[in-house]
Amino acid sequence: KSKTFSEFMVELGKGFAFVGKQYNIVVNNNDYFIDLLFYHLHLRCYVVFELKAGRFKPEYAGKLNFYISAVDSQLKHANDNSTIGIILCRTSDSIEVEYAQIGRASCRERV
Questions:
Q1: Edge to edge, what strands does the sheet with 105-109 contain?
Q2: Is-above-0.85 flag for pTM?
Q3: Which of 73, 55, 74, 60 is nearest to 102 (CA)?
Q4: CA–CA separation, 44 vs 56, rounded Å?
């Protein structure tokens, strides 16, 4: 059973402010779309979520790190902390995830 957006927000916990779904960010005149973008009020940072329906692939971490860098460059204010990135996948292999965790991306399996 898939969760509703409201259920997802409750699971995230307190402090998350929704910024956008398929949030458009432009880099070098190219459009990119972040699945979900939040701002965490207590951590004082943006949180990028990439949602993947299938198995984790290492290239997802590279894409997420690209989005993190773009958000830090274009949206983050001087007083904000660095952006956090989270990939939610149906399934994953712990070794592939471990090897792919370079930079600030966090990869987690969702149930």
A1: 16-27, 30-40, 45-55, 84-91, 105-109
A2: no
A3: 60
A4: 28
